[in-house]
Amino acid sequence: MEILTTRRLNRATLARQMLLQRERVDVVTAVERLGGMQAQEARHPFTGLWTRVEGFHREDLHRALHERRVVRATMMRATLHLVSAADYAAFRPTLRPALAAAVTGRGELFAGLDLDRLIPVAHALLRERPRDFTTLRALLQEEFPEADERGLGYAVRTQLPIVMVPTEDRWGFPPVADFTPADVWLGPEPAGRPVEELVLRYLAAFGPATAADAQTWSGVKGLRAVLDGLRPRLRVFRDERGRELFDLPDAPRPDEDVPAPARFLPDFDNLVLAHADRTRLMAEEHRGRVTTRNLRVRATFLWDGSVRGTWQVERRRGAAVLRMTPFEPLSGTAVSELTQEGEALLGSVEPDAATLEVRFEDT
């Protein structure tokens, strides 16, 4: 059985995530090829697409959202994602058992709450008009006075298919967005696709990967049995630690010496969240510097294909500053290429800034 080195796994994943070179694809195709984009905050997918798609403009994603070809909704890992409308219809039903488990696993929030009563009430309130969750929770509290307010909100987010309503705000949504039922926005929910199709889509976006990797990305348990059932349709490899890796037969697996350019990833980017073992992307000792104790996932930059540090943009009056904090000292070539890419990033996310500056903080 062929062994894939860590560096070869790195290049395979970067190729599928459009990080070896920017690609000329439309927004919907890009979002589907990426396996969806985590969208805890509205602005992050804009950066994620800019760093991957040749000629991307903010208006491209705005248009796709307003034309209902892309939606922002609770999906994998019971977190907000940007997905195509087609993938939402196909895979939201597939994720239903995992989303149900998100509720049963937090019993203290849902003590005494009758979900069979709650969901129709919430659906009716949102069907009446789109509402933000502060408003919705207050209305639900009137109907369910004994229920925990946080439990009401979390149950609706995970158990009722709902999507965020886009606006003309800069990043497509206001900080407090309205929600509407998915069947109002997109039409009646279809039966959904088998879980095998979800796993194949994962491998297309993030493979080669283990069953544990696929479960980490999706939040769905029991995927080892699913992959075993798919084995005749897949290529099987081993990593340098002897673990089985599954992959699509014709998926790209570039040589490990293929160059990987400087790239910037937004907060919560799926690239750094989609594997149980993330050593193909970063040294294990750096993992805690990317994911904080309160589970925030910082924006990162890549050099030679690996996560080498974090970044943030500060805006003061007319000046925009990109601050990079490397995990270790960088070579002169890395500093030069990251600076050039960083200046382009600033021009994208802060187009009205009078001055742009890239700074490297002490390691």
Strand and helix order: HHEHHEEHHHHHEEHHHHEEEHEEEHE
Largest sheet: 5 strands, mixed
Report low-confidence residues grouped into runs of 5 or more.
none
How much helicity do the residues have?
A: 25-40%
Q: Mean pLDDT score, rounded?
A: 94
Q: Could you say which overall geometry the principal axes of the C-alpha atoms support?
A: globular
Compute the separation of the termini in Å.
41 Å
> What would you report as the Rg, rounded to the nearest angstrom?
21 Å
Determine the number of helices (DSSP H or I, runs of at least 4 residues): 15
How many beta strands in the DSSP annotation? 12
Strand order of the largest sheet: 8-9-10-11-12
Secondary structure category? alpha+beta
Strand content: 15-25%
Structure description:
InterPro entries: AlkZ-like. This is Winged helix DNA-binding domain-containing protein. The protein is α+β, with helices and mostly antiparallel strands. The protein has a domain at 282-360. It is 39% helix and 16% strand. The protein has helices at 6-16, 27-33, 44-50, 58-66, 85-91, 96-104, 115-128, 133-143, 149-159, 182-185, 195-206, 211-218, 223-230, 287-290, 332-349, and strands spanning 37-38, 70-74, 80-84, 162-164, 179-181, 235-238, 244-247, 263-265, 300-303, 306-316, 319-326, 355-360. It has a five-stranded mixed β-sheet, covered by helices on one side. Strands 1-3-2 form a three-stranded antiparallel β-sheet. A two-stranded antiparallel ribbon has the order 4-5. α7 packs across α9 (149-159) and α8 crosses α9 (149-159). The chain starts with 5 loop residues before the first helix and ends with a strand. The mean pLDDT is 94.
